[in-house]
Here is the input.
Amino acid sequence: MSDDIKSAHASDAEPTATSSSEPLWNVLIVVVIVVTLGLLFFGGVYFDRHGGWFNPKVYPPYTSLDKLEAFQPKSGAEAAAAQGKKVYEAVCGICHGVDGMGKPGQAPPLAGSEWVLAKSVNRLAHIPLAGLAGAVTVEGKEWNMNMAAMGAGLSDADLSAVLTYMRTSWGNKAGEVTADDIKKIRDSMGGHPQPMSGDQLKSMPE
Amino acid sequence: MKTGFSVFLAAFVALGASWFGLVYAPLEQLGRAQQTVILHSTDAWPPQRTGDVTLGLQVYRASGCVACHTMQVRQTGVANEIALTDLKDHPATDFKEFLNSLLIAPPLDACSNVILANLEHWDGKVPVTLYSGDDGAVVAALADKLKPAGVKTATGVLASGSDLARGWGLRQSVAADYLYDQPVQLGNLRAGPDLSLIGVRAPDLNRHLQHLYAPKSLVKDSTMPAFRFLFEVRKKVDGQPSPDALVLPPEFAPAAGLEVVPTAEARHLAAYLVSLQASAPLYEAPFTPVTAAK
Amino acid sequence: MNQSGNNTAGANEIDTSCRVPLLALFGGAALWLVLGLALGFAAAMSFHAPDLFADCSCLTFGHAQAAANDLLLYGFVLPAALGVVLWIFARLSQAPLALPIVPVVAANLWHLGVLIGTVAILMGDSTGHAWLEYPRESAVLLFAAFLLIAVSAVATMGLRANRDLYPSHWFLFAALLWFAWSYSTANLFLLSAHPPRGVVQAIIGWWFANNMLFVGLALLGIGIAFYFLPKFLGRPLPGADYILFAFLTLVFFGTWCGVPQGAPVPAWLPAVSAFAAMLSLLPVLVVAIVLWKIGRGAGVKCFGGPLCFIKFGILSFLVTGFLYLIGFCPSASRVLDFTWFGFGLSQWQLLGFMGMILLGAIYEILPRIMHRDLPFPKLAQVSYFCFAGGVLVYVLPLMIGGVVQGVKLGDPSVPFADVSAVVLLFFRASSLGQVGLLVGALFLLLNVLVLTVQWKLGLLKLVIAAVKAPLSVPACAPASTSNSAPLSTSGEVKS
Here is the structure.
């Protein structure tokens, strides 16, 4: 471009490449190899911690499926079932058994009981709300014990959760009971309901 | 490298490996995705799109909106939270004492200093966050123990991040959100705000039409170009404005006797924008929809 | 710069064989460079006067910026780079260009494809995928043209008498495979009748953008720079084993980067990209070491000549490569993503790194293949300062503004309108740089056009002279080869 001899003027010979031979270069190559290995190691650690191990459901900031599971919010239905189980084991399970099989001479079974599985909950709900006195037939056997109104002190939500738990556990498959159902039944019962017998229950509408 | 073949081989293996890992593997993992369900529900996600929304996506693509707007929200954190929402006439000091008594037993004792720190400067007003962190068991235990005390609490999972704090999303965007986008327009630059939740932030079609015609009429000093070519300025029929004419402030309205009417393209684009409502929780992006208040 | 005195006859022949293909490629590239920069300027106008193109859909930001980006990549960088590759391969093989008609046809197909693609984007037919906005027809033309040029390049490489490969061979040969595979994959998947559903499209788009803008351009730029630097500095290229290491790490690790952190894809994809980005710092580091070694104590001044362009370009590679790779660190990406930083970085890669290297190469190659000096050598020198200054004034405010934007966006209490207002100041500064770039590009176009016209005029003069010359009828004597002086038809004009 300019006439200055020192200015850049591409030579016409083709360029050649040489390998390095100075000691500095040999030291540098060791450094470079060490750095490479270090990066490979730390990269591997990083992938292990943040990669979610190729799981398609794991997105950052979650780093593994376990972490994702830990943050799943509880749904309404799950929470009610958990609550129902808790209340059952605290209040009813002592007599009726944690497994719902009942205890001979103490309480009839709930698993497979036609009272529990009935389509409408009207008769079932009266039992914990009013109590039982007198004979009642459960699964072909007669039980003649007294049951206090164990559900009278429970809230609508808790009682409905317990009854739902009974109707969906131990092989029972029946519909859920809502707090509104319990409220309606409670309101219809009036002030101080007397314990009922099996015949009295059967005379009530379904 | 002595021969051309060895150079070719090295390049082929290198590019082949990344093709396998970044093209083929994601294709296998995500390419045959189907609709998923919203968390704790049987509703499908993403919802099927109506015709004008699909056409609107094509207008979005053709206009190059992706050059300035992103459609992906990022999340940097998540927490299990419990907040006190109603003291139900109990004095705040009583509550604090009661809470102190609860924090002695496991599993709450491990997080007692965190919970107490949250309440250190509490002015007694509700709602107040009692605990916000990783441990779901603490939240469940605290909710359990506080229930018989007669106060109301709210628990939930809260997603957090600067995008979410700006109201641009309720949780991060995930692959399921883009199932029906053809083409996917994630965006690379935020010269304008993110649009994933614009249908929730601005559900009014007319607002979008007005913004497209004259952005400055809604956002002062907006740098968004006006898209007047998507509209038609025509004479009013019998001096009466037609039902879909835009209502504009005086500085932006056309001359007297004229009205601004959106073309079909503008209407499709507005319908598409209103449909952008990535607000449903999913398994891979969980959050409690009505979250614990701060 | 008159080369005829020093050249061997072989070099003359090689240069001449490249003349028409390279003129076709470079001429189109210079034109598209000017058009791309002009469209980019029009796009920037949208921010300074948002209502300027309110009634004209073609030039609104979304259309103009997409068209400008693609013009810079497919219209300028790729054809110019392929032309330089052809010439370098011919020179290194010390053989004339193989199949010289093939690249000429290819260049025309290529420029036709770019024209169709640009018009399509401006008319609203963009595909919506970043860096792949050209529609199917255009993509097919570009790919076919590329294959033709690659055939000629590989054939030329195969003609070499000395079977040893020079380091530039590795980079440039790999670059040919890189473009062919990544471009065809991306277009086959994304522009097909049944593209993959959902976010896979974005993943393929990121894979392509990384392999094109980072690895592909790095291979081309380093290959070209490592050819010219030893020639200009008059010393051999040192550290061939280091360069081999850099080549292998670049191709094996660099290709896995691309997926941004925090993207709406399963966590393993951004984690793999972050891992790869860490390792891809190695080739950048090693190239820096080699450059330091070759440049140390060279004492060569360039005064705005081709060496200046190439030095600026390869230094830009070091800076942009480093900045690109640290953008994959999660804490950096939280600030830098979705800001003008990424946009400024890609413009620096296209214009500051590849653009400068290619301009230097073009200014060096043109006089050699045309066997005449540049018509406006002083303008070429001035264009260095216009272009270098323009690039820095264009990208640096964008990148600084991007960092400011990212910091402010990360603070939810700052309203979005305030963020936009602050960024606008930086944006206004950067538009001044675009003016400088446009001036520099116009000087290049002027040089190329006038050189072509001069050459064609020279050819025309020869034709006229041949027509006007009296017919020489030899007497009935045996033609003696030592006496005859055949009319020269190679069009060489010695000034």
